[in-house]
Structure formats: structure tokens, C-alpha cells
Amino acid sequence: MKILIVHAHPEPQSFCSALRDLAVETLQGQGHEVRQSDLHALEWNPVASAADFSERQNPDYLVYALEQREGVKAGKIAPDIQRELEKLLWADLLILNFPLYWFSVPAILKGWIDRVLVSGICYGGKRFYDQGGLAGKKALVTLTLGGREHMFGEGAIHGPLEDMLRPLLRGTLAYVGLDVLPPFVAWHVPYISDDARQDFLRDYQARLQGLEQDAPLVFPRLDQFDDRLYPLAR
Q: Where in the numbering of this chain does the Flavodoxin-like fold domain appear (predicted)?
């Protein structure tokens, strides 16, 4: 496979960065081609703005998604977005590697999503879920967090981790057509022993070695809905 890892941690010596490094080593060792986008090393600009277009279809009023669509077609989109978009379209598998911040992704990663998943290519009109522009590709979310595993789930103090990840897994990755694999989670990372961290690394390596056997999560398909997107009778 061709694999793009988008990494969003500011500390190169972090355990999150160790997961990224392990992924590169393991996947390349299996013969896959791996490219990276280390967002902090790139000094990635997370802010979607009018500055993302060297020329606009409507210079008087910014509709960002529409300008994305026209900017890509006309070659008027910012060079940093174009470079990341080319990597994304090249890849068969997208890995997002990040620490959980406030029940969500870090701002720098959210900004990569906002700016790179461009309208007209990744989605648009009824081109979403299984009909999305990135259909046929896969995505894996790899995350670290400080909480203990028992703090997440039905009835737990923080509720299910899946609820926190829903905007990412469903509203972003599945929405643009990616087959979303179950996430890999390293729990309580800042507070555990080195032996426990090594256990997570071994588990992650085993997971990476078996990615092609992973069944993706289930999300809506457009053939389950009518032309107005009302659910069809079961």
C-alpha cells in the first residue's frame, strides 16, 4: 500500500511520536511506501482563510468551500494545501496520529482537515459516505490520551470514547468516503510505566501488521436513502 501518516504532536520525544516512528518502521518493513506530514515540523498553518487562494472567483464575499472547489480546478489554491492534497490522493491508507485534546483533535490537525479535505475533490453535492471523493481508500486513527480506559464507556465518567471521536470518524473520514478502521488507543500514557508503554508499542505493531485483515466500521450508505435522503423502508 501507499500510506500517508499525518502526525500532530509538538514533542519529537513523545510517546505519540514513538507510535509514529514505529508505524513508519513497521509499514516500510512490510514493503509499503510511507510518506509523512509532521504538522509541527512543517509549521502547518491551521487557519482556513481567504489567503488560501491566490485568486478568487468571488473577491467580494468568501464562501470557503466554493473557493476551494474553484481554486483547485484553476490552480489558484495555496501551495501548502496543494502539496498535502497530492499526498492524500496518492495514498491508499491515511493514518492520523495525535494526542486527544479536549475530547477532540489538536487545532493543528483540525486545520489540516479544514484546508486539505477540499470541496469538489473529497466531497460535494451527494458525494459523501460510500460515494465520497476518497472512496476506496482507508483511514486509521491512532491516538494517545491521559485518561484510564475504565473512565470511558457507557456509564463511565467521560462516556464512550466513540462519542468523542464521532465528528472525526463519521463526520470527517467516513463522510469523504474513507473506509474507517477501528482506532488504536494508548490509554493513560503520561502516567504509566515504561513496561506498559512497551506493551502498547507491541500491540500497535501487531495491529499494523494485520491492517489488511481489519474490518472497517459501519456507516451509512447512500443506497439506504431516497433521493431526498429520507431512509428507505427496511
A: 1-208
φ, ψ of residue 22 in degrees (nearest 5): -65, -40
pLDDT score at 177: 97
Give, rounded to a whole angstrom, the gap between the first and last alpha carbons of the chain: 37
- Is a pLDDT exceeding 80 seen at residue 116? yes
Q: What is the CB neighbour count within 10 angstroms for residue 118?
A: 26
- Angstrom distances, CA of residue 199 to CA of 69, 203, 204: 45, 6, 9
pLDDT digits (tens, 9 = 90+) for 56-84: 999 999 999 999 999 999 999 999 999 99
Helix, strand, or coil here: 22? Answer: helix
Element (H, E) at 184: strand 184-186
CB 74 within 8 A of CB 68: no
Q: Is 5 left (phi over 0), alpha (psi -120 to 50) or beta?
A: beta
Question: Residue 138, SS3?
Answer: strand
Measured N-to-C along each axis, helices 15-29 and 194-209 cross at an angle, to the nearest 10 degrees, of: 30
Closest alpha carbon to 112 in 127, 98, 93: 98
